[in-house]
Amino acid sequence: MTSFRPGNDHKSLGKGQIIAEKSGTDRGKGGRATLSSRVNEDSGFSGSDLDAVQPINVAALTGQAALIIGHPGHELCVYGWCGLARPSVFILTDGSGRTEVSRTARSLTILERLGCTTGPGTGLFTDREVYRALLSRDHKLFGMLARQIAEWLILDDIDLVVGDAAEGFNPVHDVCRLIINAAVEMAAEAQNRPISNFAFRLDWRKEREYTRAPEGARTLILDQATFDSKLSAAWDYDELRSDIEAVLSDNGAESFRTEKFDPIMVDGMVDGTVDGVVDKDVGQDHQRSSIPYYEEYGARLMSEGIYNQVIRYDEHLAPLADALSLAVQEGM
User: CA 146 to CA 163: how far, in whole Å?
Assistant: First the structure.
């Protein structure tokens, strides 16, 4: 059920465009990456687009960075950024789904090759364990995870977090986003300093359309060498072969070249504030007005006798969001 679709249909904001130089070649102070705002032939800009590009604050996507994802394999969606920022990485589950076969080792090999490190507790949970905790409303478990991640963010002096978006596609993705938001808030409040918080999309079904990126969004366009390396890593990820094939069929290989990062708003404040910009149009990402896809998918599996209970937003995700909000208020 893992979605792996890094392409995007919405038009990029000119001032948020950045071009990735070859992974591992241009490093900033302390081994951290810097990003260039120069446009090259691989950018895909038209002449008018080129005129609209403005210099950006490269610290918006680099610095002491952390990547927090729900499943192994999600790092492929932000492969270019990982090579530039070299984040410390936390993976919530082992990606086993219903197969009970862990994907953690495969992802750790990719991340190590990109110069990333892993945080404590990576890949310790199975998808089934997360589902059981959701269904039983074991909010203490998720609150404990949020606090542990917050402690890790503080110890590693993290000032930028990138992670899964909550899209109503897979409950693990949405749980991961709720945990990220809570952990970022806890760590920021404990240190009395902001931590930027960005999400990248995972549900790239072709029929989904995004009319615009929120203010403060960032777009990373990979150069050819990084793009080729990303495609090679994706094709070598045997456990995700069917997902890779679906992405290429629906969106084409070129969709892998662009990596997009949206700032997250939590409780009326944009955690991913860039250059002091706050977008009041970005809503809290756990609030939904339509039935999530995971409810429909779960209902189908229950009718087939595979599941005996369906994870639902109103019954399981919304109460978790409320419980994590209370945990944030209690602090660390």
Answer: 14
Cα–Cα dist 13/112, whole Å: 32
Q: Using CA atoms, how far apart are residues 23 and 229, in angstroms rounded to an integer?
A: 9
For residue 307 the two structure tokens come to 């599941």
Q: Which CATH number fits domain 14-330: 2.160.20, 3.30.450, 3.40.1110, 3.40.50?
A: 3.40.50
Q: If you search the block for the tokens 């920021």, which residue do you land on?
A: 188
Query: What confidence tens digit (pLDDT) does each residue in 203-217 have?
Result: 876 555 555 667 788
Of 78, 111, 107, which Cα lies nearest the Cα of 95? 107
Is residue 136 exposed (0-12), middle (13-18) or buried (19+ Cβ within 10 Å)? exposed
pTM of the model: 0.77
Give the whole-angstrom CA distance, residue 37 versus residue 145. 36
Instruction: Decide if 265 contacts 259 (C-beta within 8 A).
Output: no
